[in-house]
Amino acid sequence: MKNKLLKWKENDWNIPEEVNKYELALELMENLKSTDPVLRDRLSLNCLWRIIYLDMLSKREANNLLELALSEEHLFHKLGSMEDDSVFNRAFTALTIHAIINYHNNKLEETGEATLSKEVIIEALDKVMEFFKKEKDVRGYVDVKGWAHSVAHTGDALASFAESIELDKEHMIDILKGVREKVSIDYYVYKNEEAERITTAIMNISNRDDIKDEDIIEWIRSFSEIEQPEEHPNYHYFRENVKNFLRSVYFRFKIKGVNLAILNEIEDVLNKINERFNEFI
């Protein structure tokens, strides 16, 4: 399979017509479990995305692929385990879900044709949010084996869900709450720009007509209400994660040119967290 994919890639991903694209997609899903970063990331994921985005699947096949991605075999495979190879399957499945939702959004906007039903999208979001909450292996880059990046990849998926017109304000609030919980973990320090990938989802939420500035301000304020761990190094891990994330949100909002009340709220929360260092100004 690797040699075949390399050949197709060298030929500008020209997949032979006789190849059944859905059966190929199923094979590629299996490759997402691989610890070979070239096979998993550069070849299988890229090929899978082309199959999805270039409309090579029927509506039924796209729905079946999403159902498989959300199953115990992929997104929920060994969920809760830490620092084993199962994370690659889960993390790259999250990117596959991102692609399917994004494809649906784009096609709906361009043609008015829905690939997925509202019920399917809501169920998919519920499962992704469950995964996001329960995923414990949040490593970014793993030596030799390449990217795991489960949190960043889920951030990409949430960014696609945030653009779904089938979802409403309540779903967006759930995403905001889930993000707050995930970025404030105290057992690991995010160091591979996870904050930026998640911030894109926040920006997409803020762009929606059903989300008001007051909703974003209330969510930002809620970060100051999180109980900080007392023990070390967890105390530092928590603070570093929250501060880095809020800084990412701050500068993205600033570039966008939002209501100053949003920026002021972020500053207030950051200053409260950073109070003991602000004494040295």
Query: What are the low-pLDDT stretches, counting only 5+ consecutive residues below 50?
Result: none
Q: Name the shape in a single word.
A: globular
Indicate the radius of gyration in whole angstroms: 20 Å
Could you say which structural class the secondary elements and strand pairing correspond to?
A: mainly alpha
Put simply, the count of helices is: 13
- Number of E-state strands: 2
Helix and strand element order:
HHHHHHEEHHHHHHH
Q: Give a quick account of the main beta sheet: strands, pairing sense, barrel closure.
A: 2 strands, antiparallel
Strand-residue proportion: under 5%
Cα-to-Cα separation, first versus last residue: 59 Å
Lateral strand order in the biggest sheet: 1-2
* Residues in helices, as a percent range: 55-70%
Please state the average pLDDT score: 96
Organism: Oceanirhabdus seepicola
Protein name: DUF2785 domain-containing protein
InterPro entries: DUF2785
Pfam family, one: DUF2785
